[in-house]
Amino acid sequence: MSHSQSDLNHTEPYAEGRRGFITHVLAAAIGGFVGLVPFASGLCFFLDPLIRKRKGGSGDGFVKLQITVEALELNGDPQLVKIIMDKVDAWNTYRNQPVGAVFVRRVAADKVVVFNQRCPHLGCAVDYKEKKYSCPCHTSEFDLAGARQNKIPPRGLDELEVSIRNNTEVWVKFQHFRATTPEKIPVG
Fold first, then answer.
1. What is the pTM of this model?
2. Multiple choice CATH, 63-187, 2.60.40.10, 2.102.10.10, 3.40.1260.10, 3.40.1280.10
């Protein structure tokens, strides 16, 4: 065997080992890249509820009520109006769902007062009768201005922010507040 023949035999395994290593590295890199696409898609799916913006209403937190200023009698009895908006859980949006109710009362030509229907005592639905709001659960009572009339509820009815738009539309910043506390603490 000549010297050059033996050199050839010694370099072939080295070249095959190097080619094999490069092949394995390229296969791992391509496999990692191909696996990254479904991993990133799955990660986006599971993180979506954390990064998605909640929608419903006008984008500024106000919801249009299904009643107009003209439909409300000046200094008349309050009207109970359901709040209809999109309800969103972790991955689903339920369109046009009832999420609560409010009492709406016109107190001036261009001023409307809105109270959340939930009693601040324990969260029961308040009724309006005989010129006052009353809770059927534990006999909490409130006057037309929403002030408590006995010591049962910790505070008056929760008044909500109102916006009159286009001279007739009543928009309200609907929210619930924690029951049993003297302070108005927003929930949710």
1. 0.68
2. 2.102.10.10
Neighbour tally for 176: CB within 10 Å:
16
Quick count: other Cβ atoms within 10 Å of Cβ 145?
A: 13
For the stretch 32-57, pLDDT in tens is 888 888 887 887 777 776 665 544 44
pLDDT tens digits along 148-182: 999 999 999 999 999 999 989 999 999 999 999 99
Rg over alpha carbons for the chain, rounded to the nearest Å, is 33
Cα→Cα distances 24→18, 31, 34, 94, 132, Å: 10, 10, 15, 50, 81
- Nearest CA to 149 among 137, 133, 129, 162? 133
CA atoms of 15 and 32, how far apart (whole Å):
26
Decide the pairing of beta strands 93-108 and 111-116: antiparallel
